[in-house]
From TrEMBL:
InterPro entries: AA/rel_permease1, APC_superfamily. Pfam families: AA_permease_2 (PF13520). The keyword Chaperone does not apply. The keyword Transmembrane applies. The chain crosses the membrane at residues 37-56, 77-98, 118-137, 149-170, 190-210, 231-253, 282-304, 333-351, 363-382, 394-412, 432-453. It comes from Streptomyces flavotricini. This is APC family permease.
Length: 473
């Protein structure tokens, strides 16, 4: 693959249209008209961590990314836990993405009745997961071509939606409580500290996924530079898209409308599509459907490539490192991720729709954890080069550490917040805690247990010792 292919995969892995649909209502409920400012503020730690990914990849182009780098910088235990977190993010989110793709796809073609049928959606979602996994196994080039088409389609649809919404606001043709955009909306602190914390966590979820480009480093031309640059540029493109659409949505709908539908999550875009585009609402519905469809495929990539890298280093059984001889893809690890994600989706979906939303909230904790680990690993890895000038100090040390500090702060604040079950989307207590925190703790505990079992079965990986990075190319 080339740079543009990697960029398309990095963008699609974040699922821009789906991410906006999922977070815009809850975000406005927290911070009001300052939603664009919070999206801007959320970009800062993402850019700093993306920079860490770039420089670590230059020195060690490994498809295991965080797993490999943290192992070399901080030791095997931290590396294994980082790799486990990446794998579990795929398990948590793949089913939800496929479910949204199916739901919005049915709405786009006018099959509203089928979209509201839980059993039909569940069956089609499982079929879609299997199809996207098959495309991943078929080959990276096939996946990249598919992703190029999808990213162009969803960005085009979002641009049309935002342009029409803003035009109707300024011409007084809006059907809701329109308000003209103002520069003050870019102030992330306008709603106060507690609201900003929750808003930033939603923003981190919205940006998450760009590192899929780096997970394909061993399948990309110029592996030392192209994947890292694709990751950085993915965050920049996302910033422009998120801020523009957030301005358009808040201006057209007003804060009361969006906040009142915060619990509906991505369904708020289905309602807005009809309000803004009328009979052309299928444009936005198609954008969300293609966004979730693309991300269903690309989210499998980091989890499967991380499992492959872990198996090569004997942190997982050797079978996970199997490469399809004809297609050159990690078929075993891909189907393992698929099977686990499918089972998780079916079980959680049968519990309730709220449980599915809670599992996505738990996802944000795993994201903050392994991103923060990567930033710390970058500073430790390059520690002997930090005093060579302002450039190395800022890019290799201070920047990644600031990004990690921001994410650790968000992680701690979020754990404290989720300990109260009233803050869960289902407002339901599991063992006296919020459901998202219980899910995150369960996955973390399972990871520790599996790590100890693997270490007892084969301790070769845990005999590795952290070291200092070689000179990056």
């Amino acid at each position: 693959m080339g740079f543009l292919d990697a960029l398309a995969i990095g963008l699609n892995a974040t699922s821009p249209a789906y991410s906006l649909a999922a977070v815009i209502g809850p975000l406005v409920a927290l911070v009001g008209v300052h939603a664009p400012g919070v999206m801007l503020a959320s970009f800062v730690p993402m850019l700093l961590i993306a920079s860490a990914f770039h420089f670590l990849n230059r020195a060690d182009p490994d498809c295991g990314t965080t797993f490999s780098w943290v192992t070399r910088a901080l030791g095997p235990t931290a590396g294994w836990l980082g790799g486990w977190a990446i794998a579990m993010t795929g398990v948590l989110v793949v089913g939800s993405l496929a479910d949204v793709a199916v739901g919005f796809g049915l709405l786009a073609v006018g099959a509203d009745g089928l979209a509201g049928n839980s059993l039909v959606r569940e069956a089609l979602t499982v079929v879609l997961i299997l199809l996207m996994s098959w495309l991943c196994v078929r080959g990276t080039e096939v996946s990249a071509r598919f992703q190029n088409v999808l990213v162009l389609l969803q960005v085009l649809c979002l641009v049309v939606f935002a342009a029409v919404a803003v035009y109707r606001v300024y011409t007084g043709r809006g059907s809701l409580d329109a308000v003209r955009p103002a520069a003050g909306w870019l102030d992330p602190f306008g709603a106060g500290g507690p609201a900003l914390t929750g808003g930033l966590l939603l923003g981190v979820f919205a940006y998450w996924g760009w590192e899929s480009a780096v997970n394909l480093t061993e399948e990309t031309k110029d592996p030392a530079n192209a994947p890292g640059r694709a990751g950085i540029w993915s965050t920049v493109v996302l910033l422009a898209t998120y801020v523009a659409v957030a301005f358009a949505v808040v201006a057209y709908a007003g804060t009361a409308y969006l906040a009142g539908r915060a619990d509906a999550e991505e369904d708020v875009f289905a309602a807005l599509a009809r309000e803004v585009l009328g009979g052309w609402d299928w444009i936005l519905l198609l954008a969300v459907a293609t966004s979730a469809l693309a991300s269903t495929q690309t989210t499998i990539i980091p989890a499967s490539r991380t499992a492959l890298s872990m198996a090569r280093r004997r942190a997982l059984p050797a079978g996970f490192a199997h490469i399809d001889a004809r297609r050159g893809t990690p078929s075993t690890s891909t189907w393992w991720v698929t099977a686990t994600a499918t089972v998780w989706y079916v079980v959680i979906h049968r519990i309730s729709e709220n449980a599915l939303a809670d599992s996505l909230t738990a996802l944000s904790l795993l994201i903050a954890f392994y991103y923060a680990l990567t930033g710390i690993a970058c500073a430790v890895w390059y520690r002997r080069r930090l005093m060579r000038g302002p450039g190395p100090f800022l890019l290799l040390g201070a920047g990644p550490l600031v990004g990690s500090a921001l994410l650790i702060w968000l992680l701690v604040e979020s754990v404290a917040d989720m300990a109260d079950p009233e803050n869960a989307s289902s407002a339901t207590a599991w063992f006296g805690l919020g459901a998202p925190l219980v899910i995150a703790l369960f996955l973390a505990g399972a990871g520790v247990v599996l790590m100890l079992l693997r270490r007892a079965a084969s301790g070769a990986f845990w005999r590795e010792r952290p070291g200092v990075a070689p000179e990056a190319p």
